[in-house]
Amino acid sequence: TQLLEQSPQFLSIQEGENLTVYCNSSSVFSSLQWYRQEPGEGPVLLVTVVTGGEVKKLKRLTFQFGDARKDSSLHITAAQPGDTGLYLCAARSGSARQLTFGSGTQLTVLP
Amino acid sequence: DAGVTQSPTHLIKTRGQQVTLRCSPKSGHDTVSWYQQALGQGPQFIFQYYEEEERQRGNFPDRFSGHQFPNYSSELNVNALLLGDSALYLCASSLRIRDRGSEQYFGPGTRLTVT
Questions:
Q1: pLDDT confidence of A99, banded at 50, 70, 90?
Q2: Which of A2, B65, B99, B102 is 20 to 30 A distant from B32 in Cα terms?
């Protein structure tokens, strides 16, 4: 069973600061996704990465997939209070169709 | 274009009871997956349904069962409820043919509390 480790578990920063969240595993992924979840709601997909070394940008969010497809990072520039939420990475390995989730990073951006 | 919908939004049950949760997938999607999310944790995969059959299953006991209907909607049933079954139950839909690289879209979840 692949295990996805996310760090940090909790992060509280001031508006305007930059931050990076990490997702690591000893397994190779066929694809990896990042989600954001707000209290009482389901996860909302932010991005999917499938190619080693891939970098995707979504406004102030930059997602990177490791060359060996075992790790990923999410970097937020100039964080805003609206970025507050639980950030989850989720991955598939091999022929698996289900997603395996990390335990999440709870981000709080203070105004 | 309706997204994934789930009902009910909240549910309170007593230990030993049975519960049924419902999910309608996003329009055009044919595969439904169910996840359990305990407070402060990431979602855990329960099982996935496609063509009205359970195709994959996570590490959950037989008390957890499901069904998919011809219109692709799905139900999750949990028997003999335990306190530890209290969680947010999430339904996600996807398109099977693109499943390996495609995204799963999640519903808002059903918050189940077992007392």
A1: confident
A2: A2
